[in-house]
Amino acid sequence: MTTTPVAEVKGLTVSYQAGAGRVTVAEDIAFTLQAGRTLGLVGESGSGKSTVARTLLGHLRDGSQIDAGQVTVLGEDVFALPGPALRQLRGGTVSVVAQNAGQALTPSLRVGAQIREALQVHGLPADSDRVAELLRLVRLPAPETIGQRYPHELSGGQQQRVAIAMAVATDPQVLVLDEPTTALDVITQAAVLSLVNDLRERLSMAVLIVSHDLGVVSVVADDVLVLQAGRAVEHGPTLEVLGSPREDYTRELLDAAPRIEGAPAPEVRDAHEELALQCQGLDVRYPRAPRLAVSDFTVQVRRGETVAVVGESGSGKSTVAKALAGLAPVEQGKAVLRTGDAGLHDLLAPARARPVAVRRSVQMIFQNADLALNPRRSIADAIARPLKVFGRVSGRAEARATVLRLLEEVGLGPEFADRVPAQLSGGQRQRVGIARALAAEPTLLIADEITTALDVSVQASVLDLLAELRDRRALSCLFISHDLAVVRNVADRIVVMKDGRMVETAATAAIFETPRHPYTRSLLEAVVEPGSTDLPGSDADAKVVELDPGATLIEAGEGHWVRDDEGAVVT
Question: Where is the ABC transporter domain (predicted)?
């Protein structure tokens, strides 16, 4: 293998315009990329890792500039290239796979046509055989026909594979992966990472992966560069940096990462006996869909208790959240909410048809705080809106005072009130989302993948905040997540779903210590943690466990229920 770097970054310093001055986002960064090797860039939000990665494509955000240093690919200064050469570099020599393939793909264009377009832009053969070859390369099923589908007809993992197929279509020398597995469940993540490793070796590419998931970096990167506030903190072989870190900041990142292996047993809390939510036999079907999205969902949530719903993409967990929030139609079943005034409320009606008291009592915190907040309205306006809608305040002065109190409750100072979302970090925006939900004084919080896009330290602080608020306000919480390590630290009980059906439910400790259903075990086995060196063997398109349509949940003792599919251990 050649030792000549495919790409090299030397003394890179980047700043952007902020008001009358400039802010340095990356300072004196240096690294090389070698063919057939992977470098991981890690650090908190705002550390500059994505900014640095995108310079390999000659890309800077508006208002940014290079103050010092150089970025070279195949010996050429990227930022000195003329227009035609720069266009050839982007997608030709250097390709990028973005965080959310669902947003990166054109929704109105079939995926095969999008791959064909990526080839044509660079003057490469774009016939049907080549498109099918690329789909086969990224291990998509039925490559001759899947190209006729639209992005929304594919799962999240399949969309990410299409994005990878487009990226490698031109046989690039450098592949930049910017948080490629953030929105993927553990089984799909393992399959995508295995694919990336295979393509790197087969095509002899240099790979740069940006990720806040230290487990992902552990299993795919040969070397790691840790960034903090735009500066390099630690750089070296992955086993050394993540196995025996020398710097305090690296140790802090590792300590903040949620874990399963070696973590203390989940705390067993005393929850109230009073039920806040009772669901029985919920069936949910989207309009014109041939089959149920969720079948026979049954759960009870006590006051002050957190119940997590986990499973891979398409398992129905987010559909459950939407149905209980009144955002997805319930075909049949029972869902009753008990509010603090001992009132019982039916949750089967859509949100727009629910009484004000019910809409107020069930509040949802969304996965992407960027999309959930109006970019043009101040933080104070966002939090004050439910106060006004639900009649919680009588005037502007009381609204302002309540907003400031809510900001303080979620760990934000009064100076945040008059800022707009773009002036906040991802973790701060998520705290605003929590404050807005709390403004309605709900009985039930539904948290749908709220930590997905957050780095480990911010994720830990948001989870601590949620637990503190739950205990202080005796809130009930339905916590939707695909991250089992996160769930281990926040949930009292867990419901495991697959293909729209419950396969196992038990106290958190029981799920992790004695998982009884083979599907639950497959989820746990697919988790990668900091310090891991091997990817779990998994194929996201294969059914790990085929569910028997006639199987039912039976009790295995002490509130542990498991579906009696073939191979499930129930005694």
Answer: 9-254, 277-524
